Amino acid sequence: xxxxxxxxxxxxxxxxxxxxxxxxxxxxxxxxxxxxxxxxxxxxxxxxxxxxxxxxxxxxxxxxxxxxxxxxxxxxxxxxxxxxxxxxxxxxxxxxxxxxxxxxxxxxxxxxxxxxxxxxxxxxxxxxxxxxxxxxxxxxxxxxxxxxxxxxxxxxxxxxxxxxxxxxxxxxxxxxxxxxxxxxxxxxxxxxxxxxxxxxxxxxxxxxxxxxxxxxxxxxxxxxxxxxxxxxxxxxxxxxxxxxxxxxxxxxxxxxxxxxxxxxxxxxxxxxxxxxxxxxxxxxxxxxxxxxxxxxxxxxxxxxxxxxxxxxxxxxxxxxxxxxx
Amino acid sequence: xxxxxxxxxxxxxxxxxxxxxxxxxxxxxxxxxxxxxxxxxxxxxxxxxxxxxxxxxxxxxxxxxxxxxxxxxxxxxxxxxxxxxxxxxxxxxxxxxxxxxxxxxxxxxxxxxxxxxxxxxxxxxxxxxxxxxxxxxxxxxxxxxxxxxxxxxxxxxxxxxxxxxxxxxxxxxxxxxxxxxxxxxxxxxxxxxxxxxxxxxxxxxxxxxxxxxxxxxxxxxxxxxxxxxxxxxxxxxxxxxxxxxxxxxxxxxxxxxxxxxxxxxxxxxxxxxxxxxxxxxxxxxxxxxxxxxxxxxxxxxxxxxxxxxxxxxxxxxxxxxxxxx
DNA sequence: ACCCTCTGATTAATCGTTCAATCAGAGGGT
DNA sequence: ACCCTCTGATTGAACGATTAATCAGAGGGT
Lengths: 325, 325
Description:
Chain A has 325 residues and is of the alpha/beta class. Chain A contains eleven helices and twelve strands.
């Protein structure tokens, strides 16, 4: 490995001068800077991030903790974070908390031991991470007081609910996966708040909820709003089993615009997160925090975007038929 | 931050003794080891991985490069690699190559600059990474000469093809996504080799292939074997549009057992990768390489597992009806 | 008493970089 | 001549650990 020392010897100056020339910090004449730069280039010099880290106390590495990497949405977040991070010259060290809070704590400890400059945390459902010795950016949802940035899940819920109300549905089912999840709670809260009082909405949860939702459709409900594309897909399967056509007899919506949403049949109406923006904001926040500042927009959410596809349509139920708008 | 020096001062010995006591390397009396250990415990001492890295030249960090993190299979690999890595005390630094070979090279350079001890590479479709200054483990497919470990894609193709042949199909379509992908090539090669000569199989590729496959079914084919669950899902949508019932008129298979495979309708017959084993093997290989050894099983593949669900059944086409076995 | 060996510890260098402090010398002003 | 300022460079310590080389002293053998 070629070090600053080698360059210094070659040119006949001290290592300090080389360091200054390369980083542009001290006082070095222009010719000298040019000579050093070109020699460094020739030798293929790459500064040792390790040595720099030791001296400065900054590793330039961020730790990323996710609840369970198998959630199909996380890779996109991870990818965008990784891209946003390296515009700021940060690297990303991953840790998986394997679904358990103890493991999450373990994972955090390991990252801290490696000297990360900051932590990006997507918390376990229903847990709040304890205070950390380094700056932290939490990506969760608006109702989490620790939240640094996240999608506007409630707003997204409102978008999809309003869409359903607008096209004429009057009796709907709202279907959540896991009531412990704050994200899902917020999505549902957004839906219920946005629905006009003329709409009859019932909230159901979990596996049992899926069956009950189908029964509810047979009893006259014309739409099922879910908090996840995965749930929507399962509902779709149950509907087929019950021979209920979608969207003819029932409209269906998901959440997150996962990979399969556009290619399932009917293509799923859903709400997309602006993952790029969330990632960029998270990196922005964590890096200002690391520099000791306070980010003006910390805690703000990023709007979601309604993606209307074929799984939602005007209700076709005899009791509720109405002219198209 | 509490360092080795602080402990040394507290007890009144040299830092060397503390280092020796903690790592168990030099000659230190048992009582002294005990005293140092307990003092370290009290102070909450955590060794600086950065300082250690500078001195030893080993960071204990592996770089992970993936072609495009949005592929729904990669998060599982990343998760398992991360878990396997930390049993070996390695951390994992991620980099995304955003689909382009140049970016892949860039990503590798960034990781090397951070001083990773080794690289885990899932290559871009159709590209072979150039030689690297650190040990590398490549996760790709058997036909890649650089491959270190991977699923036995050809074997997986054989499993699913044999299943289809066994239950009586005689005219099938094999549908690939992208002919550039070596993985998909291997899967298809495995399928065709495993099919008996009595079976008529046609290979088709890409978006155009999906339409042609549906036409082929209308012309009498009774099964479509795809190289990916995502493709299978798209085929499923096209079949519904064409009002072709599955699996009644046509059996359908995917690959990779993605999250939605069990919950789509009909639940998808597919081939699962043993991701845990692949990850564990990859870490094993890279760590023996880092220690300067050669791994005895490098290059071997890990068997895939056929997962039979409702999307495949005995062919029901009049021309090919036969008794159940 | 002398030499040898062994144990348990210390010394000091080193990894590659940064940075505050220092210094040599040029040039200007009086 | 003398003092002052400014520029461009150097010195040397530090970051926190590891490690080869060294050393003091205890004990054993002759």
